[in-house]
Amino acid sequence: MNRSMKIFGGILVAVVVVALVGPLISPNDYLQTDFDALLQKPSFEGFHLFGTDDLGRDLFVRTMLGVQVTILVAVVASIVSLVIGVAYGAIAGYAGGRVDAVMMRFVDTLYALPFIFFVILLMVAFERNFLLIFVAIGAINWLDMARIVRGQTLSLREREFVEAARLTGVSPARIVFRHIAPNLFGIVIVYVTLTIPQAILVESFLSFLGLGIQEPQTSLGALVDAGVNQMEGASWVLLIPATLLALILLCFNFLGDAARDYFDARDQR
Amino acid sequence: MSLLKVEGLSIRYGSVVAVDDLGFAIAQGESVGLVGESGSGKSQTALAVLGLLPANAAVTGSIRLAGAEIIGESEAQLNRLRASKVAMVFQDPMQALNPFMTIGAQLGRILLEHRVAAGRDARDQVISMLDRVGLPEAPRQYAAFPHELSGGMRQRAMIASALLAGPDLLIADEPTTALDVTVQAQILDLLEEVREDTSLLLITHDLGIIAGRCERMLVLENGHLVEEGRTRDVFRQPQHEHTAGLLAAALRVDRTDIPEPKEGEEVFAVNGAEVSYRIDGGRTLKAVRNVDLAVRAGETLAVVGESGSGKSSLVRAALGLVPMQAGRVVFCGDTLAPRLKNRSQATRRGLQLVFQDPAGSLNPQMRVANIVAEPLIVHEPQLSTEERKRQVIAMLEKTGLGPEHLRRYPHELSGGQAQRVAIARALILGPKVLVCDEAVAALDGTVREQVLRLLRRIQEETGLAIIFITHDLAVVRAISHRVVVMYLGGLVESAANEALFAAPMHPYTKALLEAVPVPDPDNAGGHTTVSGEAPSVLHPPAGCTFHPRCAHAREVCRAARPEHQELGQTTVSCHLAEELASGRR
């Protein structure tokens, strides 16, 4: 663990803990509207720490809920892309030859589709729901993961320690499991910490367009979208979720960089 | 007055001391050798003299070059000094030359920067310098890009660029380490010939080169200067124990204590091996053409050749790691399947390999204990965990490692320790044949000596047959019973150690032996009679592949490929072998 991993990991953990605990201790509810307190400034009055929105809903609770949803969507989507991407990439890379060629041309074909429009079409065609967002984001991200894992597997397969294992008669399954997979771990972890912010951005973008999370549920992207409409009179409605979104993205990015340095150190020489 | 005077030079990176309180001087026209093992601070010293150390290096002390202080000097002033006062020849010219500029353009810029010459005048000077360093057809090479030149030619161009602005001091940092031994001899001869009264600081790990080329020598250990003196005196009577250790560990091709010939049962043989690779554009690269080799129990067979000779391809094919197009592999009387996946577990158990790069051949994510235990897990799954651990510890002990290494990861080991782990992994199943692919090439002199001694001891204890692939003839002399020499994919000569070194039959073998530097100032050798470099394996010459470089070549050599023929105990493939052999007597 290096220092920046501790710092940025610590900030992220703190944000998540507050997002989970905050709504429980707050007297307010994310649905409850208060027509006496529309667009109230942040204050301790009525425990509206982040103020209220144009419907008088408490923004602290809604923002914390937004953080929960955003991180959940991103983490689940990244795990989906991780599982599909690593399995697909490692099989293509280790099998090599024709299998590899066919599998990777399929990935290339998917790459050629304009995915945001594809996702928008999906959203319009089917009823919007949570699951669809995971699927849509995962479907974008696993392509990159598969390519990276395949490339790494190809080069690992030629490494001398793999040759030594083959020569000794170690089975292919054991080679993939004991020799290739652990050496993929570093790059995969790094890539996951970098795909999470990417997934957060896609989700926020979809929500901002009104295609993502549906009211009265919310996410940081949806909150930013709502905030833009109030930006002139009530800047906090935009600034608070936008700042949190930026903070979370930065933390994941720095964490990814730090993780790369950490795992590189072991593979050096 | 001395040209270069270094006093109290210290280089630190944070808390790491690279060079500590170093002081030496070089006089005008002198050639001084700087030796030391890796990490001793040789290259750091060279970079300091050029003012090229990275910004995070803390440098103290004084470096005076022709009266001018280098340390703390401005970049602009240093730029004026470089090339005109001091110039450098790097180990890898491909890294040091700009791949996007022609040789002529980069050399011409040196003249321009230092206001020596410009335009047509500069062009003429560059071409005459290229001519002086022995580049054939200099005007054509002037317009060539670095990748169009061979390794040796590139190093010649590098030397030309270093000498162009007439420096007083030339620093050569391992200038021939990346080159084949015959080319090394050519380049070192050239350096000596063209430098005239330019002083030379020659940095190398090879004591043989120092012995033949330097008047004085400096020995570094861990950033300290431990010995300084006239080369002859230092070799004859080293004052410091580190120097004595280096000299003792230096392998010599003229040593007399060589392994006694062995009479054993033949355990591994390759007959008529052909290996080729399909490369871009549908062409075929013939890496190995019709080579035989055989090794007996308890015997070490060395396979020698320069880069591109096919020595690695040959044994990799024999082990089943790359496909062999034709030929037969026999192990303990059984003909083996060509592909590794079709070979039995018993075969795999009996044939093991140790690689050149000790770090690369160990899984970076596994601990030493698991690396060495893996063959046991695969081949003897019935063993209990304790029994397995006991065997691993016993094996590590045999290779000179203790139980404290069990839980280490490969990056926590030194090069020598990592190679011992690789040897332990290869030997834990008790193989009959061990193939070592340049297994000591990446190690420092003293560590190399220890690893070779370890292999020899294990061989005596277990009757292991070893096939040792190497480009280093001093290693061959020290450990082998018999030797196979390869050139451009073909077998050149196969003989017993004693016979090969005493009376080489093939002109190529002879040239190799002459080109090896010997760490003895009175008899340093390291010169060569052959010209040029080995051509690309993609376009081997017709007839005898060696004929374009051979001093004895005749019509028949250009026309027909020689057959392998037996002369006494030696197999040689040369049309003129008999004639040359009788001429010598």
Describe it for me?
- The complex is a heterodimer of chains A (269) and B (585).
- Chain A has 269 residues and is mainly α.
- Chain A has one domain (3-24, 59-266): MetI-like (MetI-like fold, Orthogonal Bundle), CATH 1.10.3720.
- Chain A is 75% helix and 0% strand.
- Chain A has helices spanning 3-25, 59-95, 97-112, 115-125, 130-157, 160-168, 172-208, 220-229, 236-266.
- In chain A, helix 1 crosses helix 2 and helix 4 (115-125) packs antiparallel against helix 5.
- The radius of gyration of chain A is 22 Å and the shape is elongated.
- The two termini of chain A are 20 Å apart.
- The model of chain A has no long low-confidence stretch (mean pLDDT 82).
- In chain B, helix 4 (103-113) packs across helix 5 (119-132), helix 5 (119-132) packs across helix 7 (151-163) and helix 15 (385-398) crosses helix 16.
- Chain B is globular.
- With 585 residues, chain B is an alpha/beta fold.
- Chain B is 35% helix and 23% strand.
- In chain B, strands 16-17-18-13-19-20-22-21 form an 8-stranded mixed sheet, with helices on both faces. In chain B, strands 6-7-8-3-9-10 form a 6-stranded mixed sheet, sandwiched between helices. Chain B has a 4-stranded antiparallel sheet with strand order 2-1-4-5, covered by helices on one side.
- Chain B folds into 2 domains: 4-249, Rossmann fold (3-Layer(aba) Sandwich); 266-360 and 432-505, P-loop containing nucleotide triphosphate hydrolases (Rossmann fold, 3-Layer(aba) Sandwich), CATH 3.40.50.300.
- The interface between A and B is medium-sized, with 22 and 31 residues.
